[in-house]
Amino acid sequence: MTTLTTPVGAASPRRRAQRRRRTIAVAFVLPALLLLGALVVYPVLFSVGRSFFDASGSRFVGGENYAEMFRDPATLTAIRNSAIWVVVAPTLLTGLGLILAVLVEKVRWATAFKLLLFMPMAVSFLAAGIIFRLAYEEDPDKGVLNAAVVGVHDAFTGTSSYPAARPRDDQGLRKTPDGSYGTAAAVSPGRTVDLGLVGVSPKDMPAEAKPASTAKAGADEVRGAVYLDFTPGGGGRPGAIDPAERGLPGLTVEAVRDGRTVATSTTAADGSYRFAGLTDGSYTVRLPAANFAPPYEGVSWLGPALVTPAIIGAYLWIWTGFAMVLIGAGLSSLPRDALEAARMDGASEWQVFRRITVPLLAPVLTVVFVTLVINVMKVFDLIYIIAPGPVQEDATVLATQMWLVSFGGGNDQGLGSALGVLLLLLVIPAMVFNVRRFRRSQS
Amino acid sequence: MSATATPAPSKSPAPTSGPNTPAPPPPCRAPGGRLRRWLGNGLVQAFLAVVGLVWITPVAGLLLSSLRSADDSASSGWWTALNAPGQLSLDNYTALLANAGITRAFWNTVLISVPTTVLVVGIAALAGYAFAWLEFPGRDWIFLAVVALLVVPVQVGLLPVAKLFGQLGLFGTIPGVVLFHVAYGLPFAVFLLRNYFADIPREMLEAARMDGGGEWRIFTRLVLPVGRPAIASLAIFQFLWVWNDMLVALLFADSSSQPLTVELQSQVRQFGSNIDVLAPGAFLSLIVPVVVFFAFQRHFVQGVMAGSVK
């Protein structure tokens, strides 16, 4: 290719041409610079200035707003929560992204998996917020997360199936202060004691429940049945087992002597229980309170204690795909030979990962981390949407607090500006990192 | 255009001998190695499948919730619909489309995001070309300043620009929202396009200048076509950014110019009693970006990757 030779000719036309080129160049950049100047640069300067004035903007207060930031409990909560966010979210995301990026290379459906995990990046924080408000719903009948938690919990600890069950009045069972029911009269071995309860609705009856039955007790035994003392359709006698009445399976029954539990039994499908090998004496047959405990209701995800971790969880759902794809791109540019050589030398997958992959990926991991820090610092919508009204003050971060103070009722634009400036100051290190990286990539 | 930035599915290396044979692993020496590897791979597959399930469940929940009646949503979880498909109907969507507030908010979203995208791309392309190829004093320093503006949080601009727009009569209007978005989209857009345009071979531009093309002509006939991949990524990223925005519109739009996100946000306060409106509304606001995502995967992934520095 030939290069331009300097055109021969007088200096003045050349200078005029150069001036014309400059004018054109300025015309090209002017729209961008005007908008940036008026709507980005000027606001930054204005906010810095405004942060030194009081709420109404009429009185200069110096650094008072900045001092107030660290006195006011609400802004202190915001600063504390922002710190949690900035440490926890990028760390988890980078770690999760790294693990998934390494693992996904080992399966054939890697592309489909990456697409699925990346998809939430397309979704607005508002939609994601509504999605997770639904998922975090506290009632285990409505929120899928608590439904899962309750399911797992009940699978391990069992359920008390009869939260509302109780004996009829005056049928020989007495409620004790701790919520259990015991026989009012003393029971001695050889007796049969049937315990009738009511307050179990037909749809709550376990499917395996059979008609209640009891057998004669031996000399050293106490036997009996716990049954639902209610005949569907009516006609039963209170306090006695009628033909249509079913046993209550799965209840714990205890034999108590002198205040100590000496035998424990669990009712069978027909409601029967049996204590064997009792020595002579007087006992109380007791149904402990655990039988009637209210059901486990799951975790209060959006309560004051867990709201921030819960929202970080939603944030992970959105950003994990991003971290994974970015780290995956770095992974595919690693020298394959180094990895293969290490494997041939007998290194385990874990050693390869720990000693070769991670160190070589360090620059990529740093970029992912810094990028996430910038984005986490600005998280607003997700908290605004997911945290229920009364819990909002427990979940607040700098970005939401800045909004609340300036526009959402606080109406203190001095403090609001100071919070905005703090936010800006906190992202400046990340900005320096970005600009440096950019300049290095240019040279 | 269906290829993604991610590596192609692992069909390509080494032809496999049968449909179920895994890709041949590198030669292993220990006899137990193959079994261990196979078992390990099974575990990896299972783990990733569980992760995938966790990722898809919340969206499935939103979709199913959006198809259930208010009564069903009030009494039971969306997963009960898996056993009772009779619960599902399009009634909520019919009601949503008949809801004047929602439809207007939907059009406002379009009226905000499309002009913003066009303006950002246009203005940034002009500036990016100038920063890359035209000479003017202080060019590189000004460009560096623009790059530095990348991380100015939107929050810093809210209050001062609100005052400014108040004086100009732009507060609470669609043009106001658009202008704000354009300004805060520009640093990244200029940054991206300047870098892309800078890679255009110098000879190509010199040749065009030799042919007597003016800068405008070179810009429209040469730079824009050559820069199409970057412009596409930028346009998609910018469109989604604005489509999904809530914060800016929350402040700068009034009730007649507010987009879907703000309209729905105002309903979140009664969360629980209005899932029949919120769930389909959220799905409506989500489906456009997701369609864009699947239609333009490659540009989308590249755009988001590049744009993440914001």
Alpha plus pi helix count of chain B: 14
Rg of chain A is 36 Å
Give the H and E element order of chain A: HHHHHHEEEEEEEEEHHHHHHH
User: CATH superfamily of the largest domain in chain B, called what?
Assistant: MetI-like
Biggest interface between chains: A-B, 106 and 113 residues
Record the SSE blueprint.
The complex is a heterodimer of chains A (443) and B (310).
Chain A lengths: L10 H40 L13 H6 L3 H32 L5 H9 L6 H11 L8 H14 L8 E2 L5 E3 L5 E3 L11 E4 L23 E7 L23 E6 L2 E7 L5 E4 L8 E4 L19 H26 L3 H9 L4 H29 L3 H6 L5 H4 L2 H9 L6 H30 L1
Parallel strand pairs in A: 4-5
Antiparallel strand pairs in A: 1-4, 2-3, 3-9, 5-8, 6-7, 6-9
Helix pairs in contact in A: 1-13, 3-7, 3-9, 3-12, 4-7, 7-9, 8-9, 9-13, 12-13
Chain B lengths: L30 H36 L3 H6 L15 H7 L2 H34 L5 H10 L5 H15 L5 H25 L3 H9 L4 H12 L1 H17 L2 H6 L7 H9 L6 H21 L1 H11 L3
Quick overview of this protein structure:
The complex is a heterodimer of chains A (443) and B (310). Chain A is an alpha+beta fold and 443 residues long.
Explain how this protein is built.
Chain A is α+β, with helices and mostly antiparallel strands. Chain A contains 13 helices and 9 strands. Chain A has helices at residues 11-50, 64-69, 73-104, 110-118, 125-135, 144-157, 307-332, 336-344, 349-377, 381-386, 392-395, 398-406, 413-442; strands spanning 166-167, 173-175, 181-183, 195-198, 222-228, 252-257, 260-266, 272-275, 284-287. The longest helix of chain A has 40 residues, at 11-50. The model of chain A is unreliable at 1-6 (pLDDT under 50). Chain B is mostly helical and 310 residues long. Chain B folds into 2 domains: 33-89; 95-307, MetI-like fold (Orthogonal Bundle), CATH 1.10.3720.10. Chain B contains 14 helices and no strands. Chain B has helices at 31-66, 70-75, 91-97, 100-133, 139-148, 154-168, 174-198, 202-210, 215-226, 228-244, 247-252, 260-268, 275-295, 297-307. Chain B is globular, with a radius of gyration of 25 Å. Chain B starts with 30 loop residues before the first helix and ends with a helix. The chains are: A alpha+beta (443), B mainly alpha (310).
